[in-house]
Amino acid sequence: MSTYDKVSDLEFFLKIVEAGSLTRAAILMESSLPSMSRRLSQLEQRLGVKLIDRNARRFKLTEKGQYFLEQTQQIVLLIENMENTLQSEQDFLTGKLRIGSLNQFGKQHLAGWITEFAEQYPYLKIELLLSDSRVDLMEQELDFSFQIEVPLEADYFSLPIIRGQKIYCASPEYFQKFGKPENPHHLTDHQCLCLIRNRHTFNDWPFMDSGKNTVIKVTPHLTSNSSEIIHKWALDGMGIAYKLNWDIREDLASGTLIECLDKFNPLHKNLYMVYLRNNYTQPKFRYFIDFIMKKIKIKD
């Protein structure tokens, strides 16, 4: 068995322990439960000891398994420290970055930036995962997430990279056909395009009316879990959308989308780059953060 395979087994064992069960580990590693169980059995056979008591009601390490875990953690930490030392001495990044992003921002901007970053550091493996659903960095094993929510946990750092707002908008053709709503209450007479996230339809649209915060519950004409689809429907004249301004900046400038109800919409939304605070000590994370901040500065 090669040294590489042995190190791979160590990382595999750590992920199982961190997940807390074989079932959850299989989901996180996108594998099947029989495959995970078979690989664990092969590891135990090679070592000649039982590492995990799988007959207990709760996932439990054996005494040998606890010792193996402690030694494995030290070995993996030693490898990471060695890589960090090498990477701090030269622009040679290795390992992997898993990056999550809102769908439209990821396609319009982030994918191209990652291409440029990957060309600078060809030995670094990068995964880009796009979703308009709320994400959990720990659960999805993400190193970075580009999102509009700010995590409440102290372990996370949220770096604002774009300051903006959400805008009510539609195409000129739509307004020519149905007219512009003069106040938020007129939305009940309009076709509204609503986003779905985690089975929740965002049809409670916020406004500022007479100095007070108010929410208008609109009746969705069309709904989708893709912000890109909502964008396309708005361009096609299918209704009024509630869009992040950095996604439609060019459309507003060209006039293919027109803002409405701006006097009632003082609410702001920022785009954040979220990551674990402790990760900043590693060169690959620090380099990526610095790179993104330079791209944002150039864009602005």
From TrEMBL:
Asked whether the keyword Acetylation is assigned, the reply is no
Q: Which keywords annotate this record?
A: DNA-binding, Transcription, Transcription regulation
| Ranges for domain HTH lysR-type | 5-62
Q: Superkingdom of this entry's organism?
A: Bacteria
Question: SUPFAM superfamilies of this UniProt entry?
Answer: Periplasmic binding protein-like II (SSF53850), Winged helix' DNA-binding domain (SSF46785)
Q: Give the protein family.
A: Belongs to the LysR transcriptional regulatory family.
Q: What is the phylogenetic placement of the source species in the record? A: Bacteria, Pseudomonadati, Pseudomonadota, Gammaproteobacteria, Moraxellales
Q: Which GO terms describe its molecular function?
A: DNA binding; DNA-binding transcription factor activity
Pfam families recorded: HTH_1 (PF00126), LysR_substrate (PF03466)
Q: Which organism is it from?
A: Acinetobacter populi
The entry's protein name is: HTH lysR-type domain-containing protein
